[in-house]
Design goal:
9 strands, GTP Cyclohydrolase I, domain 2, five-stranded mixed sheet
Length: 212
């Protein structure tokens, strides 16, 4: 391969809400995926000579590589934990964390907010890491139920806390745009571990969630 024929270098793409991280887009992957998107456009009977569709196959390929970057090997966020030197034993909560994901049944978006809490034991975690953990699991073909469980399991694995709880509220475009077509319908899922099974602890979480 000559230098003229060589593929361009990896291109960084900024991702909003991803804790300042960037996604590296591989031109070879774009070329491979865009060919399949082009076949889909042709199968739909669309005219790719239309200026509005001329590069759509490439744009869609780049979008999927960005939206699904949580599937890439090594994409797992580096999460540093710290000793709980203050012996803090009460709830730590981060709420209203926005996210966007793609429904694995129809490949259309679902989006909303996550509320994440844990009660420390020996280790604590930086608050910004909640967003990175959520984004890592959201950036793949996903189910809301599975996303909720994956986030709480990650916290359990990394921190071994006294307890953890995750609630996700989301709107699904597969519900709003097709099928039953119910705009504004909200799906709520929860995952509970450890001390949050105790009613007073769970009610504290829900009380904090209701506060503006």
């Amino acid at each position: 391969m000559t230098s003229r024929d060589a593929l361009p270098a990896l291109r960084p793409v900024d991702t909003s809400g991803d804790g300042g991280r960037t996604v590296m887009i591989d031109p070879a992957e774009v070329a491979r995926l865009s060919g399949h998107v082009r076949d889909l456009i042709d199968a739909l009977g669309l005219d790719r000579s239309d200026p509005n569709l001329e590069r759509t196959h490439e744009r869609v390929a780049e979008m999927y590589l960005e939206m699904f970057h949580g599937l890439k090997e090594g994409a797992e966020p580096e999460v540093t934990t710290f000793p709980n030197d203050e012996h803090y034993s009460h709830m730590v909560m981060e709420k209203d964390i926005p996210f966007y994901s793609m429904c694995s049944h129809h490949f259309v978006p679902f989006y909303g907010n996550a509320h994440i809490a844990y009660i420390p034991e020996d280790r604590i975690i930086g608050l910004s890491k909640f967003s990175r953990i959520l984004e890592f699991y959201a950036k793949r073909p996903q189910l809301q139920e599975r996303l909720t469980e994956q986030v709480v399991n990650f916290l359990e694995e990394k921190l071994s806390p006294r307890g953890a709880m995750v609630v996700i509220e989301a709107r699904h475009l597969c519900v709003e745009m097709r099928g039953v077509k119910k705009p504004g319908a909200l799906t709520v899922t929860s995952a509970i571990r450890g001390a949050f099974h105790q009613r007073p602890v769970r009610e504290e979480f829900l009380d904090l969630l209701r506060r503006s």
